[in-house]
Amino acid sequence: MNRRHIFTAALAFAATGIAFAAEAATVKTIVIVHGALADGSGWLKATEILEKRGFNVTIVQEPITSLDDDVAATKRVLDLQEGPSLLVGHSYGGMVITQAGNDPNVAGLVYVAAFQPDKGESLLSLASSKPAGSMDIRETKDGKYLYLDPGAFAADFAADLPQAEADFMARSQVFAAKQAFSAKITDPAWRTKPSWSIVATQDRSINPELERDMAKRAGSEVTEIKASHAVFASQPEKVADTIEKAARKAGE
Hints:
Layout: H1 3-25, E1 29-33, H2 44-52, E2 56-60, H3 67-79, E3 85-91, H4 93-100, E4 106-114, H5 123-129, E5 137-139, E6 145-148, H6 150-157, H7 163-171, E7 176-177, H8 178-182, E8 195-200, H9 208-218, E9 221-225, H10 231-234, H11 236-250
Parallel strand pairs: 1-2, 1-3, 3-4, 4-8, 8-9
Antiparallel strand pairs: 5-6, 6-7
Helix pairs in contact: 2-11, 3-4, 6-7
């Protein structure tokens, strides 16, 4: 083999190695934490899109009985994964991933129309700092849990979903313990992990300006999507695009 052929072969081998390294660097495991007032079933379409793109996706069905319980539920799921994981949180799920994201196997965080708290902040303190649109939140008879009036669910939470889908979400919503909403973050993972944020520009559950402010404070890469709070269900392709981009960058 002459020198030219040797050089060509070496170049081809190097290019193949670089391509393999780039592919290997992509985080392939996605762990999603749903928010309050909705369970993980709304993530079905986004999950199917991500799986077709080669990702392994797991949904944490946290109980929302307390922030500690929900962080523990998330860590149990993280413990089952192989390799680094990208942790995704919607709404209250942002509180959970901010604390649970300190797990050494978490490579990055994606906030989807989510709370992105700093140390000492709670969901209630953040929500009250910049109130959102009308949210018809009710208490259960025992005064311990909160839920969204099913009659107002579509307008307040999922205005851009088909009525039947919004109605199902209203009937399957996960009630949230008051103490989960008042619990304060002690160690925000976004201070040491890369983060991305999706702002739902027509959100009536979290003020979009609050979403922007929290993302800016954390130095998150921001994507804005014209959607309701249920952006993960109404715009699954765009949400999956952001998650895929985050997975690739988190692996660099």
